[in-house]
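User: Teach me something about this protein's shape.
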Amino acid sequence: MRLLLHICCANCAIYPLERLRKGEDEVTGFFFNPNIHPYQEYMRRLESLREYADKVGLRMIYRDEYLLEEFLRNVAHREGERCRYCYAIRLEATAREAKKSGFDRFSTTLLQSTHQDHPLIRETGERFAQEIGVPFYYEDFRQGWRRGLEVSKAMGLYRQQYCGCIYSEKERYLQRAKG
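Assistant: First, the predicted structure itself:
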């Protein structure tokens, strides 16, 4: 099976990629993350993923578009729904790329994070699977979180400290200031 794997960052790709490669899947990565702020953070994550993909021989499709204004327009005054929008734009783009490029199914490394809303990711992926006509593959990759951390440290990969959007960056620094 040919699977297109949306990748949010190199760290989150490690365990899902290892897991999927143990099966029968031929995995190609897909980078599209218009939510990441600031631009320097976006570039760090992109370059770290390029480095990781080269090291592990992962074929990649890069949709390198920094769409901060579009992201902000769609979540302003709806900050509580920002994750719903963020999952939707990335999973829809992945499903459309999977359809266009002839993949059998698609998934996302967002499923590796202990901080993401798995039921919402699954619901969103399945909605776009039906709409676009490419099955969404769900697997709870969270049990590999520690493995991803260990490997990323050993490889010297950049490890970000927040989800990526301006709101999660704010939450990170506010927690630190209050703690």
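Now, about its shape. The chain has a mean pLDDT of 90. Residues 2-178 form a domain with the Rossmann fold fold (CATH 3.40.50.620). If you'd like, I can walk through any region in more detail.
User: That's plenty for now, thanks!
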